[in-house]
Description:
Order of helices and strands: HHHEHHEEHH
CATH topology of the largest domain: Arc Repressor Mutant, subunit A
Distance between the termini: 36 Å
Radius of gyration: 23 Å
CATH architecture of the largest domain: Orthogonal Bundle
Number of helices: 7
Number of strands: 3
Strand content: 5-15%
Helix content: over 70%
Oligomer: single chain
Number of domains: 2
Shape: elongated
CATH class of the largest domain: Mainly Alpha
Largest sheet: 3 strands, antiparallel
CATH superfamily of the largest domain: Winged helix-like DNA-binding domain superfamily/Winged helix DNA-binding domain
Strand order of the largest sheet: 1-3-2
Amino acid sequence: MLQIFQRKILMNKHLLEARDNFIESAGRTTQGxxxxxxxxxxxxxxxxxxxxxxxxxxxxELKVSKGSVSTNIRELEKWxxxxxxxxxxxxxxxxxxxxxxxxxxxGGILPFLRRKLSSSLVTVNESKELIIENQEGFSGxxxxxxxxYTERLRKIQDAQxxxxxxxxxxxx
Length: 172
């Protein structure tokens, strides 16, 4: 932790600003995907760190709870986005980022998006079935609304099918 503190004091303010901007942006990006802010910030912090960091280092740097860091670092480990490394003479766990970003995308982000897409597809199908199963009871304006809803749901299904094809592309 002392190394990080010393490096920040010696670091050019523009480099520090660029690093902090990237860390904050990564947090907003992962939050936008529904993954949470901390997971993106942790990955970005490790990505821009020339040294392995302990959980305590990450807590101090991001000013978040150790529990949150621990939970999110385990998720990043599952994805292959970070790896635990051994530091001679220390009993703490230290971590480094996987710098090949496509591995991170394939290991964590794409599976997460696939699950989200699959979940939303179930909801779209359920809504469409509910309309179809009950359409005989619709009259007048309700029939028009049912047709409108069915058409809109079909558009969502078409988009989801295209996304599904994209996720199956080689290299992803």
